[in-house]
Design brief:
Helix content: 25-40%
Order of helices and strands: HHHHHHHHEHHEHEEHEHHEEHEEEEEE
Distance between the termini: 34 Å
Number of strands: 13
Structural class: alpha+beta
Length: 333
Amino acid sequence: MPIYSYEIPDGTPGDPWERLSTEAGAALGRTGIDAGAGPARELLPDTPPEPRKLAERVGSAALNWARAELTAGGAESPLSVWKSYEDHGALHQRAPDSLEHLLQLSPNLSSKVERLYAAWSDIRATGEITPHGELLSDTLKTVLIPWRTIQKHLHDLPLWADKLQKIKDNWANPATEQAYTIDIITAEVVAGNTLFYRAGSPVVKTWDYVAKMRRSDGLWGIGLMQTGTAGLQSIIDSGVLTPDTICSLGSRPGAKPLYIGDHRVSCMGILEWLSLSLQEDVENQLCWLPANRLYGTETSFVPQVFTFKGIGTQISLMDAGEPQVAQPRLAIV
């Protein structure tokens, strides 16, 4: 059994605006920068930007696609789900009530909406299917990621996830008490900042990854995430079974991690998984998360996830060099 040693970071992940004075916070509020609860927050405008201005930033096709994705499902739409979490006091940020409001809270997402729409369109054109024969594009759902709240809870991720999971379960069946079970090793490596993200270049530790996504996305992130059967039939056909070798597949020579065409689809890590499972009902299945690595003395490990209705979600670690029956759950962020 490999032995790990690491230094626990001082303190807990915080918000850069928490120690600002009221006057400084109010000044930031007038510039449109979120400053948490208090006077600055009250100064943030509640009305979305004019449609003409929004259309200048996002093409009409991408705009219509994203709006339909975020509102599909009525009371169970992505926007409604996260608003319910806010109403229960489980978020440290304002939940958007429309696409326009989302792009007001996180203006940097305009270009990402365009990129995700292009990725979805390109993947649909490839005809890639899951191991159960579904079109991959039909299983990709638009998921909101509350980066600000996640950053505040990296030190107690299991407790926060458990709280939201119970809120979510009560909508469907008040009698159930499903919850997240994150094994002690996984919880410790997230809190201790020794779990790495390989969702971009360079490879970074989890806390640094979240800070990076806060800078690039803003308060909220958005991604395309696989909700149906995990993985791809083409991965099974290739005969490649280990996480390390699967993440070497791609249309580009030597591409790491996995690509479909020009689109990196191996961005599903533990934080994306939490956002996905808290927003959507994901198929009951054992799968693993390709964006993460824990590096040991002799091998590396990836998180594996098992979800089953009536039991809940269990997250643990598995050897990235060992052949696996489970498939990777895919995401683009």
